[in-house]
Amino acid sequence: MITVRNRFMPGSDCLETQSGSSELLEKTVQELSEIVHKRNVTKLTELPFEARIDENNRLIEFEKCFINPHGVPGNPQARHLLFHPSADDWYNGDAISQVHDMISRIETSLNEQKLNHYSKRLAKEIALVNVAFICAKHSLSDFFTL
């Protein structure tokens, strides 16, 4: 998300309204990365069978966190928050393409009203991704039980 901030000119109102949510997202992703790295140290093959079932259930819950039941705006069949084709560029392989699409629309928008609309949609998309990462972080935490 840091590269997103560098794309905008200093003083851009659209960027300033999103900096808090992108910083929160960066923090959440960092915390999730630390949890995943700690979990990767344990060898699943050495765990008893029942413990491996529990780990599998946690991974299923982890994956469910990234499913948006409403789908992507304009493409309700694309329900995964991280990996789905971009509405603007089907050949581009960016993760969280809905965020990248909103950023490109903000960059090219000349209409102040559309710019405001895209800025609000960008905030919503970042918030959805952030909530998904928080859910994933909690699904892998030591205190999570089914």
TrEMBL record:
Pfam families registered for this protein in UniProt: TFR_dimer (PF04253)
GO terms, molecular function: carboxypeptidase activity
InterPro entries reported in the protein's UniProt record: Peptidase_M28B (IPR039373), TFR-like_dimer_dom (IPR007365), TFR-like_dimer_dom_sf (IPR036757)
Coiled-coil residue windows: none
Gene3D superfamilies: Transferrin receptor-like, dimerisation domain
Domain Transferrin receptor-like dimerisation, residue spans: 22-140
PANTHER family: N-ACETYLATED-ALPHA-LINKED ACIDIC DIPEPTIDASE, N-ACETYLATED-ALPHA-LINKED ACIDIC DIPEPTIDASE 2
UniProt protein name: Transferrin receptor-like dimerisation domain-containing protein
